[in-house]
TrEMBL record:
Lineage, opening ranks: Eukaryota, Viridiplantae, Streptophyta, Embryophyta, Tracheophyta
Keyword rRNA processing listed: no
Gene Ontology CC terms: plasma membrane
EC code(s) of this entry: 2.7.12.1
InterPro entries given in the database record: Kinase-like_dom_sf, Prot_kinase_dom, Ser/Thr_kinase_AS
SMART domains: S_TKc
Protein name according to UniProt: Salt tolerance receptor-like cytoplasmic kinase 1
Length: 360
């Protein structure tokens, strides 16, 4: 049996295996190429191919003139499945055309160009020739965590097991620790939620969507004025830090709050906002967890196949993360340390394939 430090070291340098069930088409080679034509790409730090600038004609080519399958869509962008080579796939995110959105695209591009972490989605390239900014990412064949956790029944998928949920939580926590503690200045993601956690062919987590990201310890944003002007507000319903909504100041602890909601989702299998009642998950399950009635809220689809002590530890950690006062919340470094020391499910989910080291 590994101790906490041994597990942490192993989890940092090894791939996390997926469960035996895999999605059709979710092959390990269904990843992205750095060059649509297979040409040599410039190498960044740590031997990782650097993102490159695409021409608009290339973007049209890899998406079939934007007729390829749409794999994601939001209010400000559309994501297309792209054939980067005859056997490599990628995801092409095309922003809507506007001066304001182009500025947001440039901000997201610049943040992503500075990041290298195994659990942050990899930017392969970008196109800034036109107002419609384009980002080209690695492809995650297993979709996003929200779909996998809350829509598994609709696609006859096996319920996400407890060990895999804990591995995903640990991976996202490591990604946030990297953003907060290993970057100078720190990066505040600003929109942590289940749909912004992609799952690759091995069901490993890839944090994505840095459209709300801020660089620096804090960033002043005024929610009320933002809504009035029609601009997007940082964060998503159910995940947004109440302190940020009151003060208009986003800090690293805003990400910690959102991560706490994500932890509660993984434990309970419930969405951040109940579609039927509009009740926030934190309000719905917080009292039960606080009074020791954890069995009342753990995802029943698990059929009792989870470690009760571990679940209690993770649920209590989640409540600390969603504390109303930012000063009461742990840092992401503390979250990572507590997860590595007090969860054992990661041991059964860690594989033997070497993982690329984090590159600053």
């Amino acid at each position: 049996m590994l101790d906490g430090c041994g597990l942490f070291a192993l989890a940092r340098c090894c791939c996390v295996r997926g469960e035996s069930e895999r999605e059709a088409g979710g092959r390990n080679d269904a990843c992205v190429s750095d060059e649509p034509g297979g040409g040599a790409a410039s190498m960044g730090k740590g031997g990782v191919a650097a993102a490159r600038r695409f021409e608009w004609a290339e973007i049209e080519s890899v998406t079939g003139g934007f007729s390829s399958r749409v794999i994601g869509q939001g209010g400000f962008s559309t994501v297309y499945l792209a054939s980067l080579t005859s056997f490599r796939l990628g995801a092409v995110k095309v922003q809507r055309s506007s001066e304001r959105l182009h500025r947001a695209f440039c901000q997201e591009r610049d943040v992503l160009l500075s990041l290298r972490h195994p659990h942050v989605v990899r930017l392969l390239g970008y196109c800034d020739e036109r107002d419609e900014g384009v980002l080209v990412f690695e492809y995650a064949p297993n979709g996003d965590l929200h779909e996998r956790l809350h829509r598994s029944g609709e696609k006859n998928r096996v319920v996400l097991p407890w060990a895999r949920r804990m591995a995903i939580a640990f991976q996202v926590a490591m990604a946030l620790e990297y953003l907060h503690e290993s970057r100078d200045p720190a990066v505040i993601h600003g929109d942590i939620k289940a749909s912004n956690v992609l799952l690759d062919a091995n069901l490993d987590a890839k944090l994505c969507d840095f459209g709300f990201a801020h660089v620096g310890f804090s960033a002043a944003v005024r929610p009320a004025e933002t809504r009035a002007s029609g601009r997007p507000v940082m964060g998503s319903p159910g995940y947004a830090d109440p302190h940020f909504l009151r003060s208009g100041v986003a800090t690293k602890k805003s990400d910690v709050y959102s991560f706490g909601v994500l932890l509660l989702e993984l434990v309970t299998g419930r969405e951040a906002i109940c579609a039927e009642t509009g009740c926030r998950l934190t309000a719905a399950v917080g009292p039960s967890i606080s009074h020791g009635r954890l069995a009342d809220v753990v995802d029943r689809r698990l059929g009792g196949d989870y470690d009760t002590e571990e679940a209690a530890t993770v649920a209590a950690l989640a409540l600390r993360c969603v504390s109303d006062g930012p000063g009461l919340r742990p840092s992401m470094a503390e979250v990572v340390r507590e997860l590595q020391e007090k969860t054992t499910a990661l041991i059964s989910a860690v594989g033997s394939k070497p993982r690329d080291k984090t590159v600053s």
